[in-house]
Amino acid sequence: LAKxxxxxxxxxxxxxxxxxxxxxxxxxxNDYITWYQQFPxxxxxxIIQGYKTKVTNEVASLFIPADRKSSTLSLPRVSLSDTxxxxxxxxxxxxxxxxxxxxxxxxxxxx
Amino acid sequence: xxxxxxxxxxxxxxxxxNVTFRCDPISEHNRxxxxxxxxxxxxxxxxxxxxxxxxxxxxxxxxxxSAERPKGSFSTLExxxxxxxxxxxxLCASSLGQGPPQRGNTIYFGEGSxxxxx
Lengths: 111, 118
Fold this sequence. Notes:
The complex is a heterodimer.
Chain A: E1 9-13, E2 18-23, E3 32-38, E4 45-50, E5 53-56, E6 61-64, E7 70-75, E8 84-91, E9 105-110
Parallel strand pairs in A: 1-9
Antiparallel strand pairs in A: 2-7, 3-4, 3-8, 5-6, 6-7, 8-9
Chain B: E1 5-7, E2 10-13, E3 19-24, E4 31-37, E5 44-50, E6 53-57, E7 65-68, E8 75-79, E9 88-95, E10 108-109, E11 113-117
Parallel strand pairs in B: 2-11
Antiparallel strand pairs in B: 1-3, 3-8, 4-5, 4-9, 5-6, 7-8, 9-10, 9-11
């Protein structure tokens, strides 16, 4: 299983753009990159998923360079409600291999 | 709401008692997963099912733990003779299962069931 490395914590002010980078040097050809958000006492919530280049949805953008050894989750204009733990995971998405979570990045948004 | 549903959301039990958690996956999702999460840690994989077949079990799943998915729909996770170390949030998740790689195979989580063993 590809391992991921991401910062343990980040702080940001409201209204700023936040970029969380994840390293996955051993990503396999069939692996997708998936990001989850988790609030205290709740289950992880799917944010975005991508394979290469850029993916954007109503919540975030995901930037993946050509070598796919890293990815960056971009949250535009964060608010206090974006304070959460963000997990970066890689997996082949066939469902045959369960996703493995690390400790994630704890984002604190400050007013 | 048609998301993953877990019951009960909170359970306090005395050490040595048995507890059972139920998970109802998203309709038509044939894959169902159980994870455990303790404070400050990411979710840890316990086991997963494809339809009614239990395909993989983590070493974390001791013989006191048993999971079933008898009809390929809802699932139960039972913990026998609970210990204080079992206190955690138990997360259930589901996914559509195998599909074209381009579609991905997103795993959706429920809100979790908190267990406190006293």
